[in-house]
Fold this sequence. Notes:
alpha/beta; 12 strands; 23% strand; Rossmann fold; 7 helices; 203 residues; disordered N terminus; three-stranded mixed beta sheet
Amino acid sequence: MSEDRIEAGEVPGFSKEAWRQEIRARLQSLAPEDRLSAAEALAHRVMALPEIESGRGVLVCLSFGVEIDTWGLVGRLLSAGKRVYVPRAVGRTKQLHIHPYPCELRRLSFGLEQPKSSCPELDPQEVNRRIDVALISGLAFDGRGYRLGYGAGFFDRFLAGRPFLKVGLVYDLQMVERLPVEGHDIPMNAVISDKSMVRPLIK
């Protein structure tokens, strides 16, 4: 466990917004070569998951900004014959729509690329049947599998009650001891970083 993780975990009373500021500062400090090697290590760990090897449909968050890169991972999944799906967030409804990938993308003002609304998408009734593993990015995760996102709640609403495996993806420096948790927060079954994997809720 890194020193950063231990020190931050000992800070009492950190709010979600305080954690967001803390993690963003950590991410800004990463050198380009460290970002590249971390993304490669993460992709290797993900591809070695038994649930990835045996599964057919994988939902992947397309990374943007300072998030750990998932574009190379998407390429590996496609090369391995997996059916890849990516999310599209709709702000006015706070809902996620799920699209088969590759598809045509549009770049939002803050840098995120997501499918155009005109692209084919999964019927909501088909999501649970088509997806075996969801690979979810976030600003931070803790050892219990809880995720800190950007505050809009898209993924908590989408993941609630889903039967498929939920896996968080982060740099190791985004792992913290304990995040503040609210009733609507959905924990991951596993969290994978470039240096470690925790599986807190897998029996």
